[in-house]
Amino acid sequence: MIFLDEVDPLSSPMKAKSVGELGLCGVAAAIANAVYNATGVRIRDYPVTLDKHLAHLPRMS
Q1: Following DSSP, what letter does each residue of 5-51 receive, concatenated?
Q2: Which of 3, 18, 43, 46 has the greatest number of beta carbons closer than 10 A?
């Protein structure tokens, strides 16, 4: 986080900017990998939804 000495009209009311959003980039991939590890179904299109998942499950006989 960088606190600004000058007034920036695009900053937050706290007069701060941060790059906290960068930490969220890997969350979707981690969830997709967790689904793969739990079920063996790899979904490569986001969002990972139940209909995409069910379409790739092997058929039970």
Answers
A1: SS--TTS-TTSEE--GGGGGTTHHHHHHHHHHHHHS----SSS--HH
A2: 43
